[in-house]
Amino acid sequence: MRYLDIGTTRKISKIGLGTWQFGSREWGYGQQYADQVAHSIVRRALELGVTLFDTAEIYGFGRSERILGRALGEDREAVFLATKLFPLLPIAPVVEQRAVASANRLGTRRLDLYQVHQPNPVVRDGTIMRGMDALQRVGLVGEVGVSNYSLQRWRAAEDALGGRVLSNQVSYSLVVRSPERDLLPFAESHDRVVIAYSPLAQGLLSGRYDRDNRPANRLRAASPLFLPDNLDRAGDLIGVLREVADAHSATPAQVALAWVIHRPAVVAIPGASSVEQLESNAAAAEIQLAGDEYGALQAASDRFSPVTGPAALPLIARARLGR
Ligand SMILES: NC(=O)c1ccc[n+]([C@@H]2O[C@H](COP(=O)([O-])OP(=O)(O)OC[C@H]3O[C@@H](n4cnc5c(N)ncnc54)[C@H](OP(=O)(O)O)[C@@H]3O)[C@@H](O)[C@H]2O)c1
Fold it and tell me: Catalytic residue at 3?
């Protein structure tokens, strides 16, 4: 495993573990996954040196936090534990009460990273950050983070807090490159962190799906990315991933992760449906891409143009009807 070098009290692994999948209906992995597989995934992640564990109060309505907390057990003090607050009522007393509730579900006295899940579209961050400041003062929260924030709003959050907002958790992968515009340069020059979610584009970049084999769960069946036409369009990118993977005796998913964490301020938090996937994802931290490989992936990513927005709606309807 490799770790970030930015002077946090607990080290942050370049590959972490995302746990939205734990106990959540959207992913549809079922009861045995929630009761047993999730536990085994966490225990194996610990053995492999993963220290960054990401959850949120809304994942499975608290179930993900409970499953993760139980699986970490005594080891919860040795990891960098991150959860998120959904800012429906973003006032300081509510923020404080929700942090205590998350900590209780996780069975911890300290949240190493407490993140605001989404920017609230109507309320600015002054009131949330007052709550965050109080939580940091009493030691319940180590670092403050945000998620899905623009650079402007990230900096405004720092002004409101009067201290560093360590991280911004955003979608970043060979399919979603927008953080490269300003979030990555900011993080790299200010010792901040971009936490890449959906680094495998929810499994698309594993190369295991195509028009005849689309994922069945609710979440991805409704995602434009997994439309038959878009799976066709992704063929070229998957082909380049396979070529690079072959040169490293690796898999396309591992190369997709190695590409994400190539940038120094980026860590990735892939989810996993099995222990084997977790093992494979952790091992991706050891893959160093050569300059020409990185460039070839970048170029293939530039060429990939999925149908999105309103143009995707008739295609989604057609896919639902099985045509
Ligand atoms: N802050 C936010 O707004 C936000 C939004 C989304 C996610 N997140 C966080 O980010 C985490 C990861 O994002 P994500 O779950 O959306 O997408 P992801 O990590 O890109 O995709 C995860 C899925 O990819 C497949 N997969 C994982 N490893 C694989 C491997 N080695 N080989 C082949 N397939 C593999 C699995 O699905 P199958 O096996 O079923 O194909 C797995 O469930 C979440 O768990 C959550 O913690 C945060």
Answer: no
Distance (Å, rounded) from C-alpha 4 to C-alpha 214? 36
Q: Which of 59, 114, 172, 209 is catalytic?
A: 59
pTM, 2 dp = 0.96
pLDDT of residue 315: 73
> Which residues of the chain register pLDDT less than 50?
323
For ligand 1, atom 19: residue with the closest CA: 270
**What single DSSP character describes residue 25?**
T
Name the CA dihedral angle for 202, 59, 40, 254, rounded to a multiple of 10 degrees. 20
Measured between alpha carbons, how far apart are the two ends of the chain, in Å? 44
Report pLDDT for 320: 67
The best mutation among 52, 206, 214 to test binding of ligand 1, ranked by most ligand atoms within 8 Å of the C-beta, falls on: 206
The alpha carbon of 204 and the centre of ligand 1 are apart by a number of angstroms equal to 10
Q: Which residues contact 53 (CB under 8 A, 6 or more apart)?
A: 16, 17, 19, 42, 45, 68, 72, 79, 80, 81, 82
Burial class (CB in 10 A: 0-12, 13-18, 19+), 5: exposed
Q: Which pLDDT value is given to residue 322?
A: 61
pLDDT of residue 118: 96
Q: Which residues of 153-183 are buried (b: 16+ CB within 10 A; e: fewer)?
A: bbebbbebbeeebbbbbbbbbbbbeebeeeb
How remote is the CA of residue 315 from the centroid of ligand 1, in Å?
Answer: 24
Distance 215 CA to ligand 1 centre (A): 13
* Nearest atom, ligand 1, residue 170 CA: 1
Distance separating alpha carbons of residues 231 and 211, to the nearest angstrom: 6
Predicted pLDDT at 217 = 84
Q: How far apart are the CA of 42 and the centre of ligand 1, in A?
A: 15
Q: Give, using CA atoms, the residue closest to atom 29 of ligand 1.
A: 277
Residue nearest to atom 25 of ligand 1 (CA): 203
